[in-house]
Amino acid sequence: MFILVNLKAYPCDPIEVAAAARDVAAASGVRIAVSPQAADIARVADTGVETWAQHVGPNGVGSHTGSTLAEPVADAGAAGTLINHSERRLRLADIDGAVRAAERAGLATCVCANNPAQIGAAAALGPDSVAVEPPELIGGDVSVATADPGIVEDAVAAAADVDESVEVYCGAGISSGADVETAGELGASGILLASGVAKADDPRAALEALVEPL
Ligand SMILES: O=C(CO)COP(=O)(O)O
Q1: Which atom of ligand 1 is nearest to the CA of 196?
Q2: Ligand 1 pocket residue status of 168, Cβ below 6 Å
Q3: The pLDDT value given to residue 214
Q4: 54 CB near ligand 1 (under 6 Å)
Q5: Which one of 56, 74, 95, 182 is most buried, counting C-beta atoms within 10 A?
Q6: Where does the UniProt entry say this protein principally localizes (predicted)?
Q7: Where is 113: in which H helix or E strand?
Q8: In this structure, is residue 126 part of a structural domain?
Q9: Residue 51 Cβ < 6 Å to ligand 1
Q10: What confidence score (pLDDT) does residue 80 get?
């Protein structure tokens, strides 16, 4: 399983979480990445943890004030990027453009979506992975894998119908090792989570608990 820890704009210490994720990944053999704010990508990548951007846009260099370009994100040390997160939605043409821009920069891509129908559409754009995250469960206490197991299974089927090479992740409300295990049993090959680590009193202990059953 791949575990991607999205720090969103939570007031945690990104370096503390990154160092913990690096150590827990090394000790457990589980692939763990941290996705900080764009301004923290270089510092987080310097810890040695796999680092992802939370967003890149479709633009190349030019007159695009406020853009997050894929190339500087990659140059800062990111290995991949989320695209179209529930809290950073894009228009269809811009999702496509962002996937292409990320590919040109050598970034792995994960296009987020609300439901299985959107997962099929996202998979058709040819990203490396897609992630189903029901918005109503994001930030809550109940895991998507428990609250709505069918959405994960249907997302896996929808992506496979379009392109079997696209990995399927799930997220929202995941906070325990049992949640991660259940997501895997439903066919997901990775999970996205945020509050379970970023808002934990002890992020390192939270990460250790996540990988414990794997
Ligand atoms: O949006 C998410 C990850 O990208 C999920 O957030 P929570 O883990 O806080 O539900």
Answers
A1: 8
A2: no
A3: 92
A4: no
A5: 56
A6: cytoplasm
A7: strand 108-113
A8: yes
A9: no
A10: 98
Confirm whether residue 114 is marked as ligand binding: no
* Residue 43 belongs to a domain: yes
C-alpha dist (Å) from residue 75 to 53, 69, 83: 12, 10, 18
Question: What's the rounded mean pLDDT across residues 141-149?
Answer: 94
Q: Give how many domains the chain has, as a whole number.
A: 1
Categorize the per-residue pLDDT at 128 as very low, low, confident or very high, splitting at 50, 70 and 90.
very high
Q: What is the pLDDT of residue 13?
A: 98
188: containing domain = 11-211
Please name which of 38, 42, 36 lies closest in space to residue 6, comparing C-alpha atoms. 36
The ipTM, to two decimals, is: 0.99
Which CATH number covers residue 21?
A: 3.20.20.70
- 3: in domain: no
Residue 35, both tokens: 């996705």
User: Per the domain annotation, does 173 fall within a domain?
Assistant: yes
> At 145, phi and psi to the nearest 5?
-70, -20
**Joined tokens for residue 4:** 């991607």
**173 labeled part of a ligand binding site:** yes
What is the average pLDDT across 133-140? 96
For the stretch 146-185, pLDDT in tens is: 999 999 999 999 999 999 999 999 999 999 999 999 999 9
CB 193 near ligand 1, within 6 Å: yes
Helix (H) or strand (E) holding 203: helix 203-211
Is the whole-model pTM more than 0.90? yes
Rounded distance, CA 93 to CA 131, Å? 18
Q: What are phi and psi of 135, to 5 degrees?
A: -55, -35
- Check if the beta carbon of residue 16 is closer than 8 Å to that of residue 35: no
